[in-house]
Write a structure and sequence with these properties.
By secondary structure, this protein is of the alpha/beta class. It is about 70% helix and about 10% strand. Strands 1-2-3-4-5 form a five-stranded mixed beta sheet, with helices on both faces.
Length: about 270
């Protein structure tokens, strides 16, 4: 017989025997109780496990609730501190803004006062400058008039002294002449021409005696000499300029035009002619 068939017969017969024999059933239960819990014990263990899980969950929930309460309390305290800090910050900002506005107001007032002071000072400065300019113009005109009169008087005094010395000591004739230039050769339009002449033994020296000589004055003097020579058909032996102040550019013109210049008294030398 096949082993599989044998096992199947044993299993079927054993199951029938166990179902019919109560003692055998009791024996099987006793043997199995050492290895497997019965229904009551299993349900008791499950209930205990559920109770432990409930207790643990309740403890966890309690801790969670306590933590949440502590967290809310901490958050409330932090929110309160934040609100207090924000209020203090706004108060500080308000005070700073108030001080800033006061400083701006003072700055604007000071700037306005400074501009007013500067305007007053500028006005006074302008008035003082105008007064100084008027005073300078007044003194310039006064000094100019005095200088002109001094120059004219000096020229005439020197002319008179030269005339007296040369005529009395050296037998020289000195003349101061004024002739009218009707063609305007000297000045560009008809005008009076004044010259100083020194004559000795028929030799003619034409002089220009002035308090100062410029470059244009030197050219004018040369035209005056040419005007006199052409009108009287004579030739001047020497052309002299006697002046204490001769412009440096006028010196170059004098050299070019063969005009002798004497700027100091010690420069004047006697001529044999």
């Amino acid at each position: 017989m096949d082993p599989i068939e044998i096992r199947e017969i044993i299993r079927r017969e054993l199951l029938a025997i166990v179902q019919e024999d109560t003692e055998l059933q009791q024996l099987i239960r006793q043997l199995a109780s050492d290895q497997f819990a019965d229904k009551v014990e299993t349900e008791s263990r499950f209930d205990r496990l559920l109770a432990e899980l409930r207790r643990e969950r309740e403890a966890q929930n309690k801790k969670w609730a306590e933590n949440q309460a502590a967290l809310r309390l901490y958050q409330d305290e932090q929110n309160k501190k934040w609100a207090e800090n924000q209020a203090a910050l706004r108060l500080y900002q308000d005070e700073q803004n108030k001080r800033f506005d006061e400083q701006n107001k003072k700055w604007a007032e000071n700037q306005a006062a400074l501009r007013l002071y500067q305007d007053e000072q500028n006005k006074k400065w302008a008035e003082n400058q105008e007064a100084i300019r008027q005073l300078i113009r007044k003194y310039d005109s006064t000094i100019g008039a005095l200088g002109a009169r001094w120059g004219l008087h000096s020229e005439q005094s020197f002319r008179n002294a030269l005339k007296g010395i040369l005529e009395e000591s050296f037998g020289v004739e000195v003349q101061n002449i004024t002739e009218f230039d009707d063609e305007g050769y000297v000045f560009g339009s008809p005008d009076q021409v004044e010259l100083d002449l020194i004559i000795k033994n028929g030799s003619l020296i034409i002089c220009e005696i002035k308090s100062s000589m410029s470059r244009s004055d030197m050219y004018t003097f040369n035209r005056k000499v040419a005007f006199y020579e052409q009108r009287h058909q004579v030739k001047a032996a020497r052309k002299l300029v006697i002046s204490p102040m001769v412009d440096k550019y006028a010196q170059g013109v004098a050299a070019k035009l063969a005009i002798e210049v004497y700027s100091h008294a010690e420069d004047v030398e006697a001529s044999s002619s």
